[in-house]
Amino acid sequence: MELTPDWIVGFTDGEGCFFVGVQKHPEMTAGFQVLPEFVVVQHERDIQILYALKRFFGCGVVRRNHGDRFAYRVRKLECLERVIQFFEKHPLKTKKNVDFRKFRRIVMMMREGRHLDKDGLIEILSMARTMNTGQRPKLEEVLKLLKAG
Amino acid sequence: MELTPDWIVGFTDGEGCFFVGVQKHPEMTAGFQVLPEFVVVQHERDIQILYALKRFFGCGVVRRNHGDRFAYRVRKLECLERVIQFFEKHPLKTKKNVDFRKFRRIVMMMREGRHLDKDGLIEILSMARTMNTGQRPKLEEVLKLLKAG
C-alpha cells in the first residue's frame, strides 16, 4: 500500500496522537524521564495501514496495544525528528496541530538536554499537561513533586 | 481552509462513517424507511473542518451532534451520490472501504426503488447489519419482523 503525504496528514488529523509521558527514573538527575511519542492506533483488521506508516517514515514499531488493537509507535528521538519534519512540511489541519507544535517544542528542548535539569523538566511537563485532553493526574502529581522539591 | 482529495480520504479513513439506519414509517409500503448517511463527527474546536467538508462536497449539513460534538451529515440521495463518486475516484485505504462498497450498493438499490418492497428491504437491511461494528439490535428486530410478516 502506497501512502501519500496528504493522506497521512488527514489520517493523523483523525487518528494520530502526539503524547508526552513521564515516568520515574532514579538514574536521571531530576528523578523522572520524559517520554514523547507519536502513536497511531488501529483495530487489527487495519494493521497493514500501521505497517505502511512504518515503511513511510522508515522507523518506529508496530505492536499490539491492547485487545484487538495495534499501535504504530515512534519513540526514538531521531525518528521523532523525522516525523516532526514531515508534519512541518505538511501541516495538520485540525486543532491537533496545536498539540503537534507543543510536541515539537518539547522534542527540541530534549535535544538541548533541557529535560535533564529540574527547571527544564518543569517547563516541559507544564507544556505537556496542556496537550491532548488535558486530563493527566499522574503528570500533575509529578509536577507538584518537582515544584515542591 | 482548502482540503485536498487525499486529505479527505485519510481523514474519512479515520473519522468518517457510512451508516444505514432504519425507522418505522407507516406510509412506506414495507412499513419502514431506510436512511443511509455519511457522517463525520468532530469536537466543536474543529467545526471548521466540518464546514470545509461541506464546502468541498457542496452539500450536506453541519449540526450539533451531542454535547460538545458536531457532525457533518449527508442524507440526501443526490448528495450521497456525489460523495460516492468521490470515494470511487479516491478509494479509502482502510477496511472502511468494505463498508463504503456496501453503502454504495444500498444507495444504488434505493435509486432503483428496491427499498420500497419487502424483499428489497430485507436485502438492504441484511447488508446494513454487516456494516460498521455489526452491533445493530434494532435493525435485527426489524429484519425479524419483515421476514415473519
Lay out the secondary structure.
2 copies of one chain form a homodimer.
Chain A (H helix, E strand, L loop, with lengths): L4 H11 E9 L7 E12 L3 H11 L3 E6 L2 E6 L2 H13 L6 H16 L6 H11 L8 H12 L1
Antiparallel strand pairs in A: 1-2, 2-4, 3-4
Helix pairs in contact in A: 3-4, 4-5, 5-6
CATH architecture of chain A: Roll
Largest sheet of chain A: 4 strands, antiparallel
CATH topology of chain A: Endonuclease I-creI
CATH superfamily of chain A: Homing endonucleases
| Oligomeric state | homodimer
Strand tally of chain A is: 4
> Quick one: overall form of chain A?
globular
Q: Ranges of chain A with pLDDT <50 over ≥5 residues? A: none
Helix content of chain A: 40-55%
Our Rg estimate of chain A from Cα atoms comes to 16 Å
Distance between the termini of chain A: 51 Å
Kindly report the greatest chain-chain contact and the residue count on each side.
A-B, 23 and 23 residues
Helix/strand class of chain A: alpha+beta
